[in-house]
Amino acid sequence: MAIAAGLRQTIARAKRNDVLFVALGVAALLFAACTFVALFIDMVGDGAARLNGDFFTQFASRRAERAGILAAWVGSFVVMLVTALFAVPLGVSAGIYLEEYAPRNRMTALIEININNLAGVPSIVYGLLALGLFVHTFGLGASVLTAGLTLALLILPVVIVATREAIRSVPGAIREAAYALGATRWQMVQHHVLPYSLPGILTGVIIGLSRAIGETAPIVTIGAVSFIAFLPPSPVSSSFPFLNFDWLASPFTAMPIQIFNWTSRPEEAFQANASAAALVLVAMTLLMNALAIWLRYRLRRNLNW
């Protein structure tokens, strides 16, 4: 009887702890959500009046009423393009190798530990690394290419970890069935593992890019321009081979840099511009996360068929 009573007390205590933990989790979630909503409402109240066509099509100006974010959002777009071109193939390939091909030894374990640690390194460290490596050693300067490579290094561990987790979630029976039908390892990965893990991989990639688009410290460290009144050269040329890569070496600015520049000014009109630009940046980030959710839903639904 004493044992049964003690067991009931233990179960009751565990249930109370579960309820307490759930309550604390809900409270933390509500606090974070209310904080975000309050900040968002404040930004809408300050910057909604500046959101018009001219704000998106004009360059930065010393006059707040004439200032726009054309160079900033174009710069963010081209930097994200370079970031994706470098980070996605390298990150996905590294994740596939570590999960499906790499031998389980001390070297592989050391690589995995370092990748997990790099995912938590402050972004300013990547900026200092890029300043010494890309700007000074390789002589790339404060260019679009340097910014894209810097942010690619920043999100590369995130992409690798997301790829590995997505591949790891594929049931082992699918691999065994592919091998039973005579498939090679690459055929098994290409035709079975990757299609099933693609929703998770794309989600991780877009979340990584969403983080990169809002980073300020790395691109400030490498020397991004805070006031710029021109766009990078067009990547399309009228002569063969119809591609122009001069835009990679062009100076640039980005949305976080423009917001930082405006918030440092004392005039109230520039504060309104900063709020409007912050709204655009938040909308871009939410749009990328919504795209990740939509892609994951569509791909998983297609797999169910």
Structure summary:
With about 300 residues, the protein is mostly helical. The protein is about 75% helix and about 0% strand.
Integer count of domains: 2
> What class do helices, strands and sheet pairing give?
mainly alpha
What's the alpha carbon Rg, rounded to whole Å?
24 Å
Remind me, CATH topology of the largest domain? MetI-like fold
User: What is the C-level CATH assignment of the largest domain?
Assistant: Mainly Alpha
> Can you name the CATH architecture of the largest domain?
Orthogonal Bundle
Q: Please, how many helices?
A: 11
Explain what this protein looks like in three dimensions.
The chain is mainly alpha-helical. It folds into 2 domains: 2-48; 51-304, MetI-like fold, CATH 1.10.3720.10. It is built from 11 helices and no strands. It is globular and about 80 Å long. The mean pLDDT is 85.
Fold topology:
Blueprint: H1 2-47, H2 53-57, H3 70-101, H4 106-118, H5 123-137, H6 144-168, H7 172-180, H8 185-213, H9 217-221, H10 255-263, H11 268-304
List keywords for this structure.
single chain, 305 residues, mainly alpha, MetI-like fold, 2 domains, 11 helices
